[in-house]
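Q: I'm a student working through a structural biology exercise. My instructor gave each of us a protein and asked us to get a predicted structure, then write a short paragraph describing it. Mine is Leucine-rich repeat and WD repeat-containing protein 1. I'm not confident about reading structure output yet, so if you can add a plain explanation after the tokens, that would really help. Here is the sequence I was given:
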Amino acid sequence: MAPLSTRLLIQRGRPKSDRLGKIRSLDLSGLNLLSEDLDPKLLSRLKQLQELDLSDNQLETLPADLGLPHLQVLHCANNQLSDVTPLCQFRQLEELSLEGNPFLTVSDSLKVTFLLPELRKFNGKDASTTRSKAENLNRELTTRVTAHWKKFVAALSPEKQAEAQADFVKSAVRSVRYGPLSLSEFTQWRVQMISEELVASGGTHTHEADTPEGRHKATATQEPRARPVALRRPGDTPLSLSPEKRVCTSPLGPVEGSLVGPDSGQLEPLHFLQCHSKNNSPSDLKTQLWACAFEPAWDEGQAGATSQTVATCGGEAVCVIDCQTGLVLHKYKVPGEEFFSVAWTALTVVTQAGHKKRWNVLAAAGLRGLVRLLHVQAGFCCGLIRGHKKAIATLCFSPTHETHLFTASYDKRIILWDIGTPNQDYEFQASQLLTLDTTSTPLRLCPVAPCPDAYLLAGCEGGCCCWDVRLDQPQKRRVCEVEFVFSKDSEASGQRVDGLAFVNEDVVASKGSGPGTICLWSWSQTWQGRGSQSTVAVVVLARLQWSPTILAYFSLSTCPDKGLVLCGDEQGSVWIYDVRPLLAQCSPPQAAVQAPTQILKWPQPQALGQMVTKTMVNTVVANPAFTYLTALTDSNIVAIWRRREP
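A: Happy to help. First, here is the predicted structure for Leucine-rich repeat and WD repeat-containing protein 1. I'll explain a few features afterward.
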């Protein structure tokens, strides 16, 4: 694209005029413009410009001095913008479109409300929703920064307080934390601003006018945080952070037992959410919730890295929730779909300018047999995979190959896909690598921990099966290589396995092979004793006591870093087992069934305002650090617990 010229601006400007100073509307969309093509000296001559369309170009940033004092409408959709701070030059902007910029995040959406005081419409929707969310966060951040200021100053002698104030800003940015990791860029940005205001005022106050709350006094009065019923926000905008989504934050019923060991700490109820309701109805207590998964931590691989953002699915919606605040960060709906499974992966992509960006991509699948790849931060679906003739029961990503995705379907097939990395239009083109045939419906997928590139375990309606998934083998369609049974009796084969997960590099937890128990068995010992057999009895290490229910499909999960096994039941309880002491014993396998370490009871009816008197917890997942635990029910409730440090 040649640089912008006066002639081009006159051709594309409205109303028609031979003078740039009279143009009020300018369309520069679809010209493949780069950031350096926007010449401030030329564009600043558009003194009366009120509307500018820069959509469908290749802009990575906007120049900071375009000189458009009367601009009211700006369209920048479908570019490569990664920073919104240059927008502060357009103080009169009332309408803004930034859709289709994959590197803009929820944090950038919040920043917009501070940078543009007159903004009324954002991405085609009323900007008050985003502004309300920013107000809630800003109130809490202001409180925390002020408390940090008092603590910081109290630790200094009077003569050092004045000279140390400059250090306070750095200290606050480093120490003050609130909200999900996905909003950390925004919160640190605001913490710095609030801290600088405190320092400038000598610690007396912050300037209310600098917050969206101060500029827009007409916002609705905030509802109390704890409510007996869940109030629903009308509509389904991607950024819904209203605390009114909560059902309750009340004390839990009796808790049996307590965690032991170095990671002990009482689990306390934090939020009970109703965010998957059909037609946004608060009376919907029937929508079945199926699966949840914690987002990979942004600093994953570093000591102490963990996540507090969880994705949940059920009905026609996938929700992304911050466990600390109970806020729904994103909601993705597909009318007529019923989502059964979600899984995260962290991709590294390279922009056209050669910059590396990290994407956390969420895969979701269900009744229609389609896999949707969701770019959660940007808020859109960037890939659709078709490969199954029936519903997809579950899916999971390879722990060693970030683009390898396993999908398991009611068509009795498991498919390994390579979703690849997105192209320049931020779309995925998945390719099929393997097809694994099953004799019954696969319910749970579990790459074998010590060799995830070689073998895949699956809990199926007909038992526990294992496939060779090595890609250096010629066959692209394979049958089950080994079936594992949990008793030496011949009739043990064919029993449903509806729970399956590795506790550590060797020990597997499985459920469904016997009523009232969860089985711990050794992968290495079982595999060594296989020989050439196609049916192998597992080497049982221990059996854990669980509910005696005959009901099925209660999914278990593990927290390998903490040596924990978790499972819900038909009474709304969460069974927690710390199996580290058990596995550390050098004695032969335990004959006696081992009791749980702790059982979390569902809250008493009065705690939820008589809303839910009985429920089943069918899925329980904890984040790697075991600081948050999320449970899903058959009555459309997402329950979140937090571990209180001892």
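A: Here are two points you could use in your paragraph. The CA atoms of residues 369 and 639 lie 28 Å apart. Residues 267-643 form a domain with the Methylamine Dehydrogenase; Chain H fold (CATH 2.130.10.10). It's a good idea to check both against the output above yourself.
Q: Great, thank you!
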